[in-house]
Amino acid sequence: MTKNTYQEAGVDLDGAANIKEQIRISASKTLGPEVLTGVGSFGGMYNLSEYNEPILVSSTDNVGTKLRIASLMGVYNTVGEDVVNQSVNDIIVSGAKPLFFLDYIATSELVPQMIMAIIDGISRACKEAGCALIGGETAQLPNMFTKDTFDLSGFIVGVVEKKNILDTSKINPGDILLGLPSSGIHTNGYSLVRKVFSIDENSKILSEYFDDIKCKLGDALLEIHKPYYPLIKQSMPFVKGLAHITGGSFYKNVPRILPESLGARIDTKSWNPLPIFHFIKEYGGISDAEMYRVFNMGIGLIIICDPKDIGSIQSLLPDSNVIGKIVTHDESKSRMIID
Asked: What per-residue confidence (pLDDT) applies to 7?
């Protein structure tokens, strides 16, 4: 009589235990005294005793089809940083400080080098953000993925004192939009990128050097999603609103923080998009309107402030640039006017 085992079914329990111990060691470098239980417990515990009226702010996100680029190139640490940074950027728009992060990695089979490269990236980004890697899940799902594919998601919790929540109802016509530069495409628009360069059919193009971007295509596409919390935290007293330019780019992400009666006008001539965006546009024959609807075009975070506070913010953030202003919304037009 044949004896079936879990390992024969595709799940390596011993391998998983070894990887989880390595993850515990890596994650321990991100923990502070506020963490009561971390990786290895059924649930992570975090002490909020230093806050008077703590409001928890949470978010979850996935790195999307950028993971396909990582798989084809065999480079995994960068997407580990991506999954943390994009999540941190999402909660800071409420005024929150990141507290702790949990990851979810799903593969068909455990490949220790891949898993630990991802975790090393996650740990590095958590440490930079002052955020504890408090737990997560590494799932073996045989036959659910091909050997060179995986899924990576993140879950973050931050905190803000109730009195310090960014009150976007105070945004007024005439307020200024300051743009902070992105480091590249970040984590949105990769389905279109893959189509433009026929990457799924011709993955070798990722290793090609292009003069237009002065690097290999794959290196440009794996540029890490820039973290903004370390940059923005000192400027928060002058900030009226923040918009993280992610999926849906300007058209979706700026209006979602504005009062219904207001819109925004952005002057695209006020900054120079990164070379990768010019390259995608020309290579794919994509219209300007579509580019600004899909990609961040070199602006990763938008700060809304009173005109009198521009100098104070720019003294702290010299890379910030005035890119537009808040206007009264005309019901007959879009809430986003991109010139």
From this structure: 64
Contact partners, residue 99, CB within 8 Å, separation at least 6: 34, 46, 131, 132, 157, 158, 159
Structural domain of 150? 13-164
For residue 158, which of 95, 103, 243 has the smallest C-alpha distance?
A: 95
Residue 232 lies in a domain: yes
Q: For the chain, how many residues are written?
A: 339
Question: pLDDT confidence of 329, banded at 50, 70, 90?
Answer: confident
Task: Quote the number of domains for the chain.
Answer: 2
174 in the same domain as 115: no
Is the distance from CB of 114 to CB of 148 less than 8 angstroms? no
Residue 49, domain CATH? 3.30.1330.10
- List of residues 6+ apart from 294 with CB closer than 8 A: 188, 189, 192, 249
**What pLDDT sits at residue 184?**
94
Q: What is the pLDDT of residue 109?
A: 83
Shared-domain flag, residues 159 and 209: no
